[in-house]
Amino acid sequence: MVGLVIDNDVYNRVGESWWEEDNPLNLLHGSLTPGRFAYFRTVLGQTIGRDYRGLRALDVGSGGGFLAEEFTRIGFRVTGIDPSAVSIDTARRHAARAELDIEYRIGSGERLPVPDSTFDVVYCCDVLEHVSDLDQVIAETSRVLKPGGLYLFDTINRTFVSKLVAIKIMQEWRMTRMFDPPIHDWSMCIRPAELTALLERRDLRLGEIVGLGPRSKNPLRLLDLARAGGTRLSYGELSRRLDFGQIRSTAISYMGYAVANGESPPRQRDGLPDGHDQL
């Protein structure tokens, strides 16, 4: 277990406006939600099929409900878990307005308030690099998955490149940072090989890891980072301009999937991209 130096209480302070484009948290929605979900839909199609009616999904660290609503719309019965009461209230209100039936509960990844072997799918995005006990979160994930269940995830790599982007540019440099208090600690970021070892320890067999990051090659996006916020440029629009999604390199962030109880996933492809996890 590590002592947290990041400010996870930010999700209570600004969690009422997850869905508002001028909230820095909306950077996770503009293109990250569709980028992540497009990849997850591909994995679901390869491992489960395309009919999700009656299947149960658990959103660990559900925040404002971005991904919970996407999974619900394709047929899953979704339960969202988050330690922020403010974020849970926001997610409930937004789901009600959208007439989506999603169950939200206050809780942490280290102690999920759900029974054993309950879920067909568990997904965890932008969370693993925030938790106080990563091994316990993975253990809890394994506990609540049904045999053969699917685990979908993304997180920030611990590389020189991720330190420059996620820490220096997004967090420390005055002109480009999103929050004054720290929301990430580079030492808590996770290399793919480290996460793979934890998954295997908890009886989750890795299927694949791919890169996650901005796909835009336009150098003007660097100026957009300085302009984002307020009336100049919303964080939602910044996210869309950066065009987050699947990329080849895992140097900044990565996403992937694992299968519970060591069962080999169908059409399994190569796992760790050579070299990227050690940059």
UniProtKB/TrEMBL annotation:
UniProt keyword Ion transport, yes or no: no
Protein name in UniProt: 3-demethylubiquinone-9 3-methyltransferase
MF terms (GO), sorted A to Z: 3-demethylubiquinol 3-O-methyltransferase activity; polyprenyldihydroxybenzoate methyltransferase activity
Biased composition (Basic and acidic residues): 266-279
Region annotated Disordered, chain positions: 260-279
Annotated Pfam families: Methyltransf_11
Keyword Plastid belongs to the record: no
GO biological process: methylation
Record organism: Rhodococcus wratislaviensis (Tsukamurella wratislaviensis)
Entry keywords, A to Z: Methyltransferase, S-adenosyl-L-methionine, Transferase, Ubiquinone, Ubiquinone biosynthesis
Domain of life: Bacteria
Residue stretches making up the Methyltransferase type domain: 58-153
